[in-house]
Amino acid sequence: MKLAIITSRYPKENQPYNHMFVHVRALYFQSQNIEVTILVPASSAATYTYQGINVIEDTAKVIEDKLKDYDVLYLHLLNHYPLANGGYRLYKTIMKHRYRTAIYIHGADVLVYPEYLYDFTWSLKGICKYLYVQIWNYRAMKRFLNQISTFDSYVMMTPSKWMKNHTEKIFNRKFEHFYAIPNGIDTELFDVPFDYNTRYNLITIRPLSDPKYGVDMAIELMRFLPEPYTLDIYGKGHLKKTYEDLIRKYNLEKRIQIIDSFIEREELPTLFSKYGQFLAFSRFDSQGVIMCEAMAARLLTISNYNSAIPEFIENNTTGLLGDNLEELAESIVLISNNERQLQALVERGRASMEEMNWMKQGEKELTVLRKLM
Q1: Which of 35, 61, 227, 258 is most buried, judged by most C-beta within 10 A?
Q2: How far is it, in rounded angstroms, from Cα 6 to Cα 25?
Q3: Confidence of residue 233 (pLDDT cuts 50, 70, 90)
Q4: CB 233 within 8 A of CB 259
Q5: Cβ partners under 8 Å of residue 176, min gap 6
Q6: Could you give the 3-state DSSP secondary structure of residue 356?
Q7: DSSP SS3 for 276
Q8: Rounded to an integer, what distance in angstroms lies between the CA atom of residue 330 and that of residue 334?
Q9: Burial 65-91 (b: 16+ CB within 10 A, else e)
């Protein structure tokens, strides 16, 4: 099978976070003797190899002519921008020629307001984003999904049952070939031994550019945790000052620090080994890959009841969930004071992630993709 994965960005040197979840599955497909090529619409041409995966960046017009050379086209977060570096032209070509197509819906590619309402601003940028999400992207994606569902060969996938049901709710229809297959987790990479001595060290790794990632909730939680507990926030973004102001407001400067950095994925296990708990609050998540990686690394992983998160964390069984931050803090202190209970909980969290190992999930995806042939 010649497989083209089409996405709006892809990891490269010094940019390892560019849709790493796409790269993980590409590595698996290639290990199974699938001929994989990554196609990325861009404003200029470039080719490179990232960890053995061939990547082609070029304008949508050039990529359009390459689509016929592949047996299956697999779309991941391909935007609908009608520009040289946008995916709109590729969507139109796929519909015109009825190519064998798979699409993996992550959430941001289909969501409409009010899911995004919390970050709306009365500014030119905010209004343009609203119009793009609510009108242009919604109509274009609805047309595309309705069209490919008439193809002889198509499949749709998404990370969670919640996201599958929510997608069908957004477009007010059921899709026949639609599968919930979570993103796979590299449990071998994130096999970090349990260390009770790190139990007071909390970490969160989030972009500081979008309120949906719940960094403010992590800061609020620290108000209710006693003195030994500290929080390190890793991330970059324009909301950094907002969060620094919130930290000062609650006089938490000595216990919370923002580290203006992203960490290379291969360095995450070493970083995780210094911490005992991971805060994964979110206002929307179709899965939460780094949340799952923290669970695999035997960190007590803490989040809220929102969207798909309860599919991946079972409260008091594989992690902690709660919407009342004061009560959640009480649960954290209680379990932190019991080494045996804490270790049992994080080991169950680790075991749940082993069931989602990237090889197992890759096999499930590849089985679905092969149905197109």
Answers
A1: 258
A2: 13
A3: very high
A4: yes
A5: 149
A6: coil
A7: coil
A8: 6
A9: eebeebbbbbbbbbbbbeeebbbbbbb
